[in-house]
Automatic annotation (TrEMBL):
Key word Hydrolase present: yes
Domain Fumarylacetoacetase-like C-terminal as annotated: residue spans: 27-232
Molecular function GO labels: acetylpyruvate hydrolase activity; metal ion binding
UniProt entry keywords in alphabetical sequence: Hydrolase, Metal-binding, Pyruvate
Protein name: Fumarylpyruvate hydrolase
Pfam families noted in UniProt: FAA_hydrolase
C-alpha cells in the first residue's frame, strides 16, 4: 500500500556535541508558570492547576549552536512577543506518571522561545477562542540544541534570561517556577499518554515584550549556553 502524497518530514532537534537528532512528536507549552509573569499578564500567581496549549512539531525552528540564525517576523501581527523558556524533551512516555518518577522520563533540556502574536492571542482571549493563531504560527518555537540529562543533570535552579540588542528584558531563576518540571510531566500525563519525542516548554518569567525586524534576541539558561536569533 502506497501513500497518496509524499510523506511529511520528521521534525527533529540536534543533540549538542553529536550528530544525533531528537525526533519531535508533540509540543506542549505550560502557561503562566512564573508568579511575576502571571501577574504581568493579569493572572493569579497562586498554585492553581497548570494549563497547557500546544504548538505543531513543525513550528519548532532549529537554532544552531554558536550562530545567529534568521527568524522571520510573521504576518498578521503588529505586536510580536518573545518569551524565553526551558525546553524539556522526553525519552519515555506513559500515563499517570508519579511526580517522584517523572524526571526518569526526561532525555534532556534546551533553550527555547515561545514566540507569540500577542495581539491575536489577546483577541482570542476576549472572544473565548483557541490560541493557535497567536501561539502556533510558523517558526513560533525556536529551540537550541538539546543537552542530555545524562550530561547536565536536571536543572532546578539557574539564571534564565533574554536580551534584545544587548539590553536585558527577561531575567529570573528556574527555581521561580510555580510548577516544577516533574510536576508538569506528572500533570500532563493524567490528561495525555505521553510518548518518546514529546517536548514541553516549561513557561516564561516576567518581562515579555515586543520585538521588531532588525533586532537580535539572545536567550540564555545557566548551564545550557545561549541561542541567538535575528528578526528578519
Amino acid at each position: 500500500m502506497a501513500y497518496v502524497i509524499p510523506t511529511p518530514p520528521v521534525h527533529a532537534l540536534p543533540v549538542v556535541g553529536t550528530g544525533d537528532l531528537f525526533p519531535v512528536r508533540r509540543v506542549y507549552c505550560v502557561g503562566r508558570n512564573y508568579a511575576a509573569h502571571a501577574r504581568e499578564m493579569g493572572g493569579d500567581p497562586t498554585r492553581e492547576p497548570p494549563f497547557f496549549f500546544m504548538k505543531p512539531a513543525d513550528a519548532l525552528q532549529v537554532v544552531t549552536d554558536g550562530q545567529t540564525v534568521d527568524h522571520p517576523y510573521p504576518p498578521k501581527t503588529q505586536n510580536y512577543h518573545f518569551e524565553i523558556e526551558l525546553v524539556v524533551t522526553l525519552a519515555k512516555g506513559g500515563k499517570d506518571i508519579p511526580v517522584a518518577e517523572a524526571l526518569d522520563h526526561v532525555f534532556g533540556y534546551a533553550i527555547g522561545l515561545d514566540m507569540t502574536r500577542r495581539d491575536l492571542q489577546d483577541d482570542a482571549k476576549q472572544l473565548r477562542r483557541p490560541w493557535e493563531l497567536g501561539k502556533a504560527g510558523d517558526y513560533s518555537g525556536p529551540v537550541g540544541p538539546i543537552h542530555p540529562a545524562s550530561k547536565v543533570g536536571h536543572p532546578h535552579k539557574g539564571v534564565i534570561s533574554l536580551s534584545i540588542d544587548g539590553t536585558m528584558k527577561q531575567k529570573a531563576d528556574l527555581s521561580d517556577m510555580i510548577w516544577s518540571v516533574a510536576e508538569q510531566i506528572s500533570y500532563l500525563s493524567s490528561y495525555f499518554e505521553l510518548a518518546p519525542g514529546d517536548v514541553i516548554f516549561a513557561g516564561t518569567p516576567e518581562g515579555v515584550g515586543a520585538v521588531t525586524q532588525g533586532q537580535t534576541m539572545v536567550g540564555a539558561i545557566e548551564g545550557l549556553g545561549e541561542i541567538s536569533l535575528r528578526v528578519v
